[in-house]
Design goal:
A hairpin with a 4-residue loop joins strand 6 (about 165-170) and strand 7. It is rod-shaped, with a radius of gyration of 44 Å. It has three helices and eight strands, in the order αααββββββββ. The longest helix has 27 residues, at about 5-30. Strands 1-2-3-4 form a four-stranded antiparallel beta sheet, with no helix packed on it. The protein has a four-stranded antiparallel beta sheet with strand order 5-6-7-8, with no helix packed on it. By secondary structure, it is an alpha+beta fold.
Length: about 200
């Protein structure tokens, strides 16, 4: 083969290789110069790939592209079906109890007199006043003379019966405790006793 034919053959091979290389470079460089609508166009293309067959026919004629084909095209596959529901998690710790404040009042024997039971600041008190406008005398029912007071008391009630004033508290756990004092002196020397819970 003479030198002229060799040179012509080399030029022909070079021209054939130049076309794929140019196309590859154009494909790589395309994202850098893509228009602002490139993302929307890609989303539309991916949508068509999911619904059309491999040869562009309707999905009824041929199945949609496989997940591998979609991934190769830069598209996400169809969303899978929802899995079974997981087991129920453990119950979280109980939060701090809110402030429990309560007041109960009952009429005394003397006209205008009254007894009250108050629950505030985590303590229970019993009070007496001889008239509707008189000053109250309060006794703390959470001290050493009335042991057994439940620290989670959240409701209070009061009752007058046979010369004694009874005070009951309801706890956040649903338990009921009771104590009593003499009336009207409010000598409180009995401890708290549990009552059958409701």
């Amino acid at each position: 083969m003479n030198a002229v034919l060799k040179t012509a053959r080399r030029m022909r091979l070079a021209s054939l290789l130049a076309v794929p290389v140019a196309l590859s470079l154009a494909t790589v460089a395309a994202p850098a110069v893509a228009s602002p609508n490139a993302v929307a166009v890609q989303a539309a293309d991916c949508s068509s790939l999911r619904t059309l067959g491999t040869k562009g026919k309707a999905a009824k004629a041929k199945p949609a592209r496989s997940a591998r084909q979609l991934a190769a095209a830069g598209c996400t596959g169809p969303r899978g079906s929802q899995g079974p529901r997981g087991p129920k998690g453990d119950r979280g710790p109980a939060g701090p109890a809110g402030p429990c404040i309560d007041l109960a009042v009952v009429a005394g024997v003397a006209t205008g007199s009254e007894y009250s039971a108050a629950l505030t600041r985590g303590k229970a008190f019993v009070g007496y006043r001889p008239s509707s406008t008189g000053a109250y005398i309060w006794r703390d029912l959470t001290g050493s003379t009335t042991p057994g007071y439940p620290r989670n008391a959240c409701g209070v009630a009061v009752k007058l019966d046979s010369g004694r004033v009874y005070v009951k508290v309801l706890t956040t756990a649903g338990d009921v405790y009771e104590t009593s004092c003499s009336a009207p002196a409010l000598a409180c020397t009995l401890g708290w006793a549990a009552v059958v819970r409701p």
